Amino acid sequence: MKILSVVGARPQFVKLAPIHKATVAASVEHVIVHTGQHYDPMLSDVFFDDLGIGAPDVHLGVGSGSHGVQTGAMLGALDAVFDEHRPDWVLVYGDTNSTIAAALSAVKLHIPVAHLEAGLRSFNRRMPEEHNRVLTDHAADLLLAPTEVAVGHLANEGLADRTVLVGDVMTDVLYEVRDAVASTPSPLVAGSGLEPGGYYVSTIHRAENTDDPARLAQVVAGLAALDKPVVLLAHPRVVAKAAAAGISLTQGALVQHAPLAYPDLIASVMASAGVVTDSGGLQKEAFLLRVPCTTVRPETEWVETVDLGWNVLVDTAEEIAAGVTRPAPQPTDVAPYGDGRAAARVIEVLADRAR
Ligand code: UD1
Question: How far, in Å, from the CA of 12 to the mean position of ligand 1?
């Protein structure tokens, strides 16, 4: 069996790592195609290096652009790659423009497509990720769902017969990295003079929070007013948007910091008092590490984190403050995101169903 993975953005490299490891363990041929959607070393290369993926086999070098320009450039480049490799499966990950481009290109070439992390829904049609998820799920031949909730969403859309519950591969990589960094101090504690438990980790990068200057100013003011230092691991998008709007990312409690490599991020979250984010993956990572999370969004795809009390959804500056200072959540052993062995299950399902 030959699997061809298409990835392009930071969260996809994290999901790729356990899949790649499982292909090696199962002696399955695995071709890795990087679209080039993310190209800064701290958003791309460090993940391939730190998580043992090696280098991609093909790099399309597409880079940034408007949604249509970026997605179209990927589509234009992928046909020839798929034609050359003719894999048994094209595997697409998550909900970025790289995901929809690869799904669309493969389905038109009649190459079976599997969607990893299928069935997530925010039901917010203004989110680019929501368009990408829905369209990818309906184009794909096999829907690899991370949770029971995702399975339910797919059934509601008439896609039950293409769906398999495999668990969440981010749990696989998180548990492995958590154990590996257990005795390594966070670089924020070792290098920036912060105390364990004495700071919050924050990431803000979604278009809904960054692209309107008034909204960005409100979020930044909320972070700046918090009661402990807030280390903002600043994605290039928020840096660019803040600079253009004349908004300082170092005001009040805010400490601006470059994005971290994955092991450093996990060590930093583990040593923090809490996470404030609009990332999908980080909400779940905080939950799996049992660190309280405050999410600056009107909804989340990872509803289990909220239902179990480890995550709250907030909007205004006042709500951000109330979220991070809320009482500690109730301990729980519930494991909605699987057992840390999802990637091996994915490879088994793909092998069973390869034509
Ligand atoms: C993309 C995904 C989002 C995911 C996020 C993870 C889409 C629609 N969005 O958002 O779902 O949560 O990745 O980080 O696919 N830039 C750089 N260097 C880079 C990459 C981007 O400077 O390596 C800057 C450019 O100014 C670019 C902007 O960031 O225009 C946005 O990048 P883009 O890839 O379009 O989307 P993200 O915001 O990263």
Answer: 12
Containing H/E element for 313?
A: strand 311-313
Q: How far apart are CA 255 and CA 249, in angstroms?
A: 7
Tell me which amino acid residue 33 is.
V
CATH number of the domain where residue 311 is located? 3.40.50.2000
- Rounded Cα–Cα distance for residues 238 and 234 (Å): 6
Residue 298 in any domain: the answer is: yes
**pLDDT computed for residue 192 by the predictor:** 78
DSSP 8-state code for residue 27: T
Task: Please indicate whether residue 59 is annotated as part of the active site.
Answer: no
Q: What is the mean pLDDT of the chain?
A: 97
138 and 94 part of one domain: yes
HEC readout, 97-108: HHHHHHHHHHHH
Whether 290 is in a domain gets the answer: yes
Residue nearest atom 30 of ligand 1, based on CA coordinates: 64
pTM for the predicted model, two decimal places:
0.96
Cα 197 from Cα 216, distance rounded (Å): 27
